[in-house]
């Protein structure tokens, strides 16, 4: 069904310029008609008659073009008259005339495309970060107050939810945390052996592994994996509840969302992250041990012996000590961002991403602060 | 409620022997339906009776187990890519909550189908978008707003503007007045009636809203027993199927009838006689 060409012809008649429109003025021909109509030049003050006798069909795009031309000619100082409008086309023209005669949509240019916009954006982002920090601190205060209240009424702690959270954040993470730590152990042992062999000091690979994994990598890897799988889950779960108005429902039922949703997640992670860290340390050392055996020929008893003599227990404790701090960061950020979700599903996705990025960022910052702190203490 | 074809004309949608199954549950079982050019057809039925599934099947979002669905004479299940793209230009769909693209402004939403199907200068596109936004009764400031900044009623209007972007011949409306306050719902009914009149649209409308049915539908199709009973309101009011009786003669149905001001059974008689 090919539409017959839409066109118009300009003709001079005594005292008036006649634009005889014909064909099917439909969207498909709109671009071409638009081009020709815009190129039309009529001297100001001249009478114009638009003759619609030849129009077979018309849609809103065609009606818009006709009426736009009429209006622009009037603005130009011409007297315009429509003639031979068929009654079947009248309702559409009337409707477009009544409701659709608007200036073109002007899309606002994104402000950051200009230099001042760029600077303004940096400012806005900075203020946003400060405001967010302030609100997160407020949230931390709320959580602390809830924890204190629960300490006075320990019976209100939701044990079932707590255990369920420990299962989801701890037990369910065993495979991925174990596998990745094992692989990191292998990588460090291999790289360490490669470098230290140049000095004939292969045996110190064990020291490198011990210190590297126990003090830093075990807990850091675990925290990053948990931030990715549990922190995001916290935001998504609480955020989805927010979208469904479940949080509001909790409040109207007299339940405190912090007590019901946040505390079990926080305590659950607080308990499971140190345990996961110890497990990750073991798997990392296992990976390193097997690699040392394979590449350097250090037997397992030798490895254990070297580890015992070279390593202070402090290294182990420093790693494990950091875990609860990381757990608090991940759980707090995860839950906080969940509560920030508005009623749109799109914000769940955005805030989940944000929560993971923020949690990992803060974990690494806090880890660096710990390093500085411990070096000042000389441990 | 005027302007509907008294004599059935060309069937723009023709459904024969449609069967839809989800798992072991059969939703439609040998359903037949014709939709004629220029009419407003209301689809009603209980929750879960497959109203939306029927709509989704016609526009090709749901593949039926059996049966044949023709739109403008083309079998939508078996037509090729080109035919299918041609069909997409000739229909518009308004989903329940508008289904606007949330990352685009209202105007950009309307320009998506224009961009996809036609090459046209940006300025003309912006003019057409502004025109459509005006036609559905949204303010000029709505054009550059994002869907999340709009109320439910405005989102529906914006969704309708996008559905009308290509000046389609058929529009499918999925519960257009659900979730609107009675005033907004009444305005939406009027809007659809006006647009139908001026654009010569065929409207396929899934609805729960009895007032809409009485106000704008030429014919009503009731989904009962996995099939459809279709007719003018007067015929359905006289139908003695228990669900249809409960629907139209229940307290809400009677209230809507009263609100129409006249007994449709009487008013409809001449039209029925001439059909």
What gyration radius of chain A follows from the Cα positions, in whole Å?
A: 36 Å
Helix content of chain A: over 70%
Query: Regions of chain A with pLDDT < 50 over 5+ consecutive residues?
Result: none
Order of helices and strands of chain A: EEHEHEHHHHHHHHHH
Overall average pLDDT of chain A: 89
Low-pLDDT parts of chain B are 1-5, 262-275
Helix percent band of chain B: 40-55%
Shape of chain A: elongated
Overall geometry of chain B: globular
Number of strand segments of chain B = 10
The largest sheet of chain A is:
4 strands, mixed
**Helical segment tally of chain B?**
12
Compact overview of the structure:
The complex is a heterodimer of chains A (379) and B (275). Chain A is α/β, with parallel strands linked by helices and 379 residues long. In chain A, 71% of the residues lie in helices and 9% in strands.
What does this molecule look like?
The complex is a heterodimer of chains A (379) and B (275). Chain A has 379 residues and is α/β, with parallel strands linked by helices. Chain A has twelve helices and four strands. In chain A, strands 1-2-3-4 form a four-stranded mixed β-sheet. Chain B has 275 residues and is α/β, with parallel strands linked by helices. A six-stranded mixed β-sheet of chain B has the order 6-7-8-3-9-10. Chain B has a four-stranded antiparallel β-sheet with strand order 2-1-4-5, covered by helices on one side. The longest helix of chain B is centred in the last third of the chain and has 18 residues. Chain B is globular and about 55 Å long. The two termini of chain B are 16 Å apart. In chain B, 43% of the residues are buried. Classes of the chains: A alpha/beta (379), B alpha/beta (275).
